[in-house]
Amino acid sequence: MIEPKPAIQPEQSGDPGAKPAAAKKRRFGGTTAQIRSALKFYKVMAYLTGTMLLLLCAELVARYVFGVYLFAGGTNATTGQPFGFGFADAESKAVLGGVNVSVTVLIVHGWMYVVYLISDFRLWSLMRWPFTKLILLALGGVVPLMSFIVEKKFHSEVEAELAANPQASKRY
Question: From residue 89, how far is each of 38, 118, 142 by CA, in Å?
Fold first, then answer.
């Protein structure tokens, strides 16, 4: 008759051939240099996107609270005088020709956010984090001032993980 064995084997402390409990190894998706490069790219994009988001918020307040756009150049439609740089009425065509800086801020922030998402994805995939961290990284470019806070938190986390696991990034 076969003797049943317990599912969990007791550890034998006196046995010199016994292996210690297997520690979970941390693996990264790239080398330390690749991760640091992705971290630097993420940091630059976080600051640029955060700054553009603050400009976007100021532009939205100017447009919807005060009813003005920011223009550069052009001609004042009512007087015919050259228009340098400043605010003009949003409802009527107050400035002819010039550059609508308010709309430019909208477009630039939109494209910067796309590049910011690429930097998020690159860092997330190299660090092999769970999907929830990618969502947190992405929210950094949507909520005003959050990109600065999230960048600081994740920057220190990446540095700590790299320091704690120096052998994990040696892929090649």
Answer: 43, 37, 28
Contact status, residue 38 vs residue 122, Cβ threshold 8 Å: yes
* d(C-alpha 32, C-alpha 44), whole Å: 18
Phi and psi dihedrals of 99, rounded to 5? Answer: -95, 125
Asked if 39 and 124 count as a contact pair (C-beta separation under 8 A), the reply is: no
The three-state secondary structure class of 24 is coil
Distance of CA 153 to the CA centre of its chain: 11
- Higher pLDDT residue, 57 or 6? 57
Checking if the pLDDT of 164 tops 50, the result is yes
71: left (phi over 0), alpha (psi -120 to 50) or beta: beta
Using the predicted structure, report yes or no on whether residue 144 has a pLDDT greater than 70. Answer: yes
For residue 165, CA distances in Å to 26, 29, 37, 121, 154 come to 7, 13, 17, 21, 16
For range 84-105, the mean pLDDT: 76
